[in-house]
Design brief:
Helix content is 45%, strand content 15%. It is an alpha/beta fold. Bound molecules: nicotinamide-adenine-dinucleotide.
């Protein structure tokens, strides 16, 4: 499986850690050319690239803040200059920004959460569109994958209302893109993680994590590498060439639509 990912050019936003980095490794193992991205240059980036480049494919890092339109444009320009085009885009950058209850939410916080979760995906996808369109040929589709969240369906935890709403926005906007860009040879799908053991949950005590685990039929948080095959599947034309506009929940049974 996934042999058609060999040599494919895959950009993953927000991929210096967690789910994005695990996905990057899975693509490199399949022989893909992968662009890692972070807002800042991580101290361990050279070691990360050396580890990935010792595998089957190729990895490079591109610094850009995808929560800004300039950052999104710069990222796509850097990536396509290096790899000569783009076949797969994974809009993974996202986060809570902070936890704020309704009385504390103001326009500044609204903008910050929407910028990193919604604008980032919109702006990077817009900039990538001509490249993805050029990539789709001979019946082989290119692929855009959004990273949604269980919060989009259940509303998010304490202080995470805007985050959940921004993720729901992503779950929805791909429907329009499917309606109007399938003719360009591009598929759009969303991977919706449940609760994964990453820096995202660094603010939680072991006790809180144990309580959350009790609500997951599998009884534990997911590991980032357990989310990665969902991205491989939705990126591979051979595996999912007739799948578009869908949300793939990867959540140990925590939410069942
Ligand atoms: P993480 O905090 O470990 O990683 C987030 C990554 O995004 C980091 O590499 C960070 O540098 C990058 N990033 C953040 N803002 C950025 C910006 N403006 N520009 C560029 N890069 C930026 O988080 P994670 O748990 O790996 O989450 C990955 C995605 O999965 C996010 O969209 C998150 O909302 C989503 N998600 C995570 C969980 C979970 O339980 N961990 C659940 C549902 C959805």
């Amino acid at each position: 499986m996934f042999q058609d990912l060999k040599g494919r050019r895959v950009l993953i936003t927000g991929s210096t850690l967690g789910i994005g980095l695990a996905a990057a490794e899975a693509f490199v193992r399949m022989g893909a050319k992968v662009g890692l991205n972070g807002r800042r240059v991580p101290a361990d980036i050279e070691a990360t690239l050396a580890r990935l480049n010792a595998l089957e494919g190729e990895a490079a890092f591109f610094q850009a803040d995808v929560g800004t339109e300039q950052g999104a444009a710069s990222l796509v320009a850097q990536f396509t200059e290096r790899f000569g085009g783009m076949d797969v885009l994974i809009n993974n950058a996202g986060g809570l920004v902070a936890r704020k209850p309704l009385p504390d939410i103001d326009k500044g916080f609204f903008d910050a959460v929407m910028d990193v979760n919604a604008l980032s995906a919109l702006a990077v996808t817009r900039e990538a569109l001509p490249h993805l369109k050029a990539s789709a040929k001979d019946g082989q589709t290119s692929s855009v994958i959004l990273v949604g969240s269980i919060a989009a369906d259940v509303g998010g935890g304490p202080g995470a209302a805007l985050y959940g709403a921004a993720k729901a926005w992503l779950h929805n906007i791909q429907k329009n893109w499917v309606n109007f860009h399938t003719a360009d040879g591009i598929r759009f799908n969303t991977v919706s993680p449940g609760t994964f053991d990453t820096a995202f949950h660094a603010d939680k005590s072991d006790e809180v994590k144990a309580n959350i685990s009790k609500g997951i039929p599998m009884g534990r948080f997911g590991k980032p590498e357990e989310c990665a095959p969902a991205f491989l599947f939705l990126a591979s034309h051979a595996c999912s060439g007739y799948i578009t506009g869908q949300v793939l929940n990867v959540n140990g049974g925590q939410f069942m639509p």
